[in-house]
Design a protein that fits this description.
The complex is a heterodimer of chains A (about 110) and B (about 120).
Chain A lengths: L4 E3 L2 E4 L5 E6 L6 E7 L5 E8 L2 E5 L7 E4 L6 E5 L8 E8 L8 E2 L3 E5 L1
Parallel strand pairs in A: 2-11
Antiparallel strand pairs in A: 1-3, 3-8, 4-5, 4-9, 5-6, 7-8, 9-10, 9-11
Chain B lengths: L2 E3 L4 E5 L4 E3 L2 E3 L6 E7 L6 E7 L7 E2 L2 E6 L4 E6 L8 E8 L10 E3 L3 E6 L1
Parallel strand pairs in B: 2-12
Antiparallel strand pairs in B: 1-4, 3-9, 5-6, 5-10, 7-8, 8-9, 10-11, 10-12
The chains are: A mainly beta (about 110), B mainly beta (about 120).
Chain lengths: ~110, ~120
Amino acid sequence: EPEVTQTPSHQVTQMGQEVILRCVPISNHLYFYWYRQILGQKVEFLVSFYNNEISEKSEIFDDQFSVERPDGSNFTLKIRSTKLEDSAMYFCASIRGGGYYGYTFGSGTRLTVV
Amino acid sequence: AQTVTQSQPEMSVQEAETVTLSCTYDTSESNYYLFWYKQPPSRQMILVIRQEAYKQQNATENRFSVNFQKAAKSFSLKISDSQLGDTAMYFCAFMKPSYNNAGNMLTFGGGTRLMVKP
């Protein structure tokens, strides 16, 4: 069964450093998402991406965050200057149509900012 | 904005027994979708079951079924014949269709940690 692949599974970074989280969505999917889950808290929507541009973003997704699809297969989330509060699990997801049959999520990247 | 509430942070059940996880939501929409996702220790979010709001019939997937009460805005998950592999975090999620599919984001509840005991 097709999968959404995320790398790395765990990343530790110093506060203030830039990080790039990588995702390979399912190849025939058209819509891509990033969600975040701070330890012990809810899973929260960050951003959606379609046709090479951001479609929707939450209040969390401020100027420190950016997304791109550099080569038609990878979908990346960049955090320019990480803060301690960015420590969380980051999930990538993709859907082909409206997501009415559910999203396909990746296994997540655990980001630890020290 | 929609909100999703899971009032049971943790639950446990004996293997082979039945357990029900609660979920309530708040929305003014009439057309929407509801989901239960499972997050085992491997962390991946796995779709368990889905329900379309305009369908009155409760969804069923093998040992998993829902009790969807639209008027009460309640969407509980019943797991029958619980198995050790059902041990996981379970998230209830709401989705309102938007004018563009990219806006179909999920709103999650806080999760219920389920432990199945041998």
